[in-house]
Model the fold of this input.
Amino acid sequence: MNCTHDQEALILYYYDELTAPEAEVLRARLAQCPACQHAWQKLQADMQVMDGLVKPPPVNASDLQRVRAVPVAPRQGPARVQVLRWVASVAAALLIFVTGWYLGAVDNDDKWADSVRFDSDTQLVRIEYEDDESSPLTGSIHDAPMQRELGVILASDIDPLNRMRAARALAHARIAPNVRVSSVLEGVLASDENPVVRLQAVRALNRLYSDRSIPESLRSVLLDRVETDANTAVRMKAMELLVASEQVSMDTRDFMERVGSDSRENPYIRFMAHSSLERLTGE
Amino acid sequence: MTPVDEQLISRAQSGDAEAFSALLSHSDARVVQIVHGITGNMPDALDVFQTAVLKAWRGMHAFRADSSFDTWLTRIAINEALSHRKKATRLRAVPLDEEHIGELESSNDAPDSGLLREDSRRHLEAAMAALSDRERTVFTLKHVHEYKIREIAHMLDCAEGTVKNYLFRAVHKLRNALS
Ligand SMILES: [Zn+2]
Done:
């Protein structure tokens, strides 16, 4: 018999990747060719040694838990004090909801932003994507599709620089308040892990709601941020918006009284609390 | 695909994060191990996997039932790991492979018993690290995780013949390291 001593077929045979007829041919060859018989035994022995040495690394269960929770709670806030913690979870849930809504609405399969740029003079946004096939997206920040795309970046981009730029674009744009933009910013403010992104988000919200009344959900998030955010600038901006919205409500008033009389509190925040109380009570 | 999987997939596609997490829990340990085979260390593997999970979540609506969720997620994770490696190699003066081999050689405090085995292990690990990313990926998928060549071709988005070639080369190099 004319034997080719085909080594590759042996490997495929070992891995059970030959078709039934191919395997039949190979077995006939092994039965007749001592060289192939020997090569087969050597291959099996080597593979056995490899089995013992090539082991997949153990994976820590808590690491998996953390990653698994990523879409459930995209970014956990730094929650210093656990007051009103439910607010953050409600806002996080809202963020998921809104993200899901965006995912359904936006027709891009696997695009991932590489950079986000905004020109405040022209109000144009330009988004470049990581993969070379997706062409850059340019459009006015006043257009709904662009606002949606910025929302997707804010809610799910893993690069904080992109999230920050998206928030900053919204903070510098002169756009009318709308639930689409507002709810994403609210979610970001409540749960983004990066303080600069939260700061840009609260700035954008300040701009969006300048001298207008704010939604109840946003008011809860702002109260929570003033009380628990690790970043003082975020707390001040949240306070500014709370005060500027001038909504008279009992728990806002209690809150302002508590903050205003807390001697450990940041002086600027205390000052705002006092002046807000003065206006609320008409004194 | 089981009816439960189908149900989870359609729920995840309509934005149910809990369903998505449930889907993940079937595959994640294995996918992390596969990614580890490419990145060479666990912290990077977890980072890469986390990015892949976000991409999968974000692209869930694009998932088609012509492959299993497991294959699809693995494919996203492998792409992510390969591009991570490309970036890492570009950023570092010393390629990861050499660092890895250096690490292996410096940890030369094996006990007397099983010294031979320890020696083979070090040779084999060095040979694994010296494989190309694709060779190592294919070998891990086939030898350790026992995927079919057809599935691996789908994950790597290449022809089955190409997968076979990577596999032959990897097995050949690793066997050389043993002898
Ligand atoms: Zn032969």
The CA atoms of residues 139 and 171 of chain B lie 7 Å apart.
